[in-house]
Amino acid sequence: MREPRTRLLYQFGIILIIFVLLYFFLLIKPLWKPLLTVLCIGMLPFVAGGFIAYLLYPIVGKLELLGMNRAVAISFIYILFFGGIGYGLYLGIPVLIGQMRHFSEHVPELVDYYKSLIRELDASTSRWPDGMKSELMERVDSFEVWIGQFMEKAISSVVGLVNYVIVLAVIPFISFYFLKDLELVKKAAWYMTPKKWRNNAQVFLSAVNVSLGGYIRGQLLVCFILGIISSLLFWLIGLDYPIMLGLIIAFTNIIPYFGAVIGAVPVLAIALMSSIKQAAFALGIVMLLQFLEGNVLSPYIVGKSINIHPLFIIAALIIGGEAGGLWGMLLAVPLLAVLKVAIIHTRDYLIHSRST
What we know:
The chain is mostly helical. Helix content is 88%, strand content 0%. The longest helix has 46 residues, at 310-355. Keywords: Membrane, Transmembrane, Transmembrane helix. This is PurR-regulated permease PerM. It is found in: Membrane.
């Protein structure tokens, strides 16, 4: 009897010490936060460069299989990828900043327009519960404050990229060396991993790469295509802020199922300020984009990379949204894919261990 009780007290003491250490760690936050910020900024180009190299590596491999020299293949993809991004940023960022500033200046007009709609609706309806009008007005006012702060942060973030020009400038070089020496990086990781974990780690990472790699690459390509098409179509119908809205469509489309609704809200909100006709055109474009994404782009580009039931994806999106807002929803599906692979890998490992 004493041994289980002693073990329980020991475990409780360990948990208590961990909580005390965490509390102490939070108390000294002013000391470690600046160091963590510097560390994150220093690691940013390596993380970004590694991620880009991970995205481009399969293309380099396919060019090698076609007989192209590895160095030539890397140089070709490197120039095409970063040259295209650089040229696009050179043309797009000034226009995007201009549209964002213009929109932030006209946010009060947007809010006043929807306030007037609420007043008209309230005047034509006598069955509204008491307090609903004031509640709606408070919601609209809070939205005005939020959207104003969000646009200021977004503009300052885009402009603030200039302050990190040196950090951003080294990303292409880091990505190039990752692509060039990726096999050496794999060997280094192999030898740094304890021997008893090597085979299992290799099987696990290979499974994650198969499940997650195709999904991430395909989803980013689909979002890029939808962003270009939506910006062009919004511009053709004369909708204000086409590049900004196209960027929103591309960004929110990363979120399965809910992304289309989230992206459509600002598009329709801005289109309604011009006319009902333009709002109908904008809605038609959004529906066309979703048809294109669901029936043409995703089946052929993304396919069934993660192969997870929609109910699990929706549950992960809800949990991610509650835990981390929009960013939580963006990361929910990739984390779910890794969790699925981890569960399957653990199950197979346990079955194999019992059989041997």
